[in-house]
Design goal:
By secondary structure, this protein is an alpha/beta fold. The chain is 34% helix and 21% strand. It has one domain (4-266): Rossmann fold, CATH 3.40.50. α1 (4-20) runs parallel beside α5 and α6 crosses α9 (209-218).
Length: 279
């Protein structure tokens, strides 16, 4: 992976493979919701079953949090989901926005878009749409979204400052985001950082937590808040694909450095707006 375009194509290939699996295969595979752990994609997912609007057909177990649970979505909101996959978070969001709201899912994998559209068709949702697009150049005009959500996707984007500047651009003044993602609080072994599979699995692609939060601040967001944080433990049967037994022992002897966070931020209201309170 020598450049950003190679990284994008690698991620696209891997997630296309996952999208093209049927649910039974995905559920029994190590990339899905089974009990084995020889792939990293699924070791960090949270359970959605308790959330209204959850649809099992759209849940590929690829997330690392529950951003929709923390997103403060109101009836009638326009919500954008970045990296929408098969539509899981979009359908939970649609329940929160109701018939008067609108949900737009963005994904750059054609197979995921097709799967999500098929799921929406089965559910007869006419206020949920899916658009093919790159998070570094979101195919939405500015000041459209009341809320932006994303689940374990922003870390896969090579140009993270550009991605968060795009989130800022599409949000309305006074809008906000809730994003779940993987971050680090220390250094990963070089063999893991250089593994394509670990990049696509959201581990090698993760950056330092402090850098991640600085990117959000630099994009212009205010009231940045950590809504949830949990450690991610990589099982030894995954580590053995990249590290020797001795290196695994050294890695496991150190304090955990991989975390899932759900972070919130706001785009301030414009001072030109009536009742903005900032004039």
């Amino acid at each position: 992976m020598n450049n950003n375009e190679e990284i994008k194509q690698m991620v696209k290939r891997k997630y296309s493979e996952i999208a093209l699996q049927d649910n039974a295969t995905n559920a029994s595979s190590c990339c899905g919701s089974g009990g084995c752990s020889t792939e990293v994609y699924n070791i960090m997912s949270d359970e959605y079953e308790h959330l209204e609007g959850y649809n099992p057909d759209a849940d590929l177990k690829l997330g690392c949090g529950l951003p929709t649970e923390f997103a403060k979505i109101n009836k009638g909101d326009t919500v954008v989901d970045l990296g929408s996959g098969a539509g899981n978070d979009c359908f939970v969001t649609r329940h929160a926005t109701g018939n008067s709201g609108k949900v737009i899912g963005i994904d750059f994998t054609e197979a995921m878009i097709e799967k999500a559209r098929a799921n929406a068709e089965k559910l007869h949702f006419n206020n949920v749409e899916f658009r093919l697009g790159d998070i570094e150049k979101i195919p939405i005009t500015e000041n459209v979204a009341d809320v932006v959500v994303s689940n374990c996707v922003m870390n896969l984007v090579p140009d993270k400052p550009k991605a968060f500047s795009e989130v800022f651009r599409i949000l309305k003044p006074g809008g906000h985001f809730s994003i779940s993602d993987i971050v680090l609080t220390g250094d990963l072994p070089e063999k893991i950082k250089n593994a394509a599979e670990m990049y696509a699995g959201c581990v090698a692609s993760a950056i330092q937590k402090s850098d991640y939060l600085h990117i959000i601040k630099d994009a212009g967001f205010t009231n940045i808040t950590l809504q949830k944080e949990k450690p991610i433990i990589v099982p030894n049967d995954i580590l053995k694909n990249y590290l020797t037994d001795e290196e695994i022992a050294i890695y496991n002897s150190k304090k955990n450095i991989i975390y899932s966070i759900t972070v919130y931020g706001e785009k301030a209201k414009s001072c030109c707006e009536p009742n903005s309170g900032c004039c």
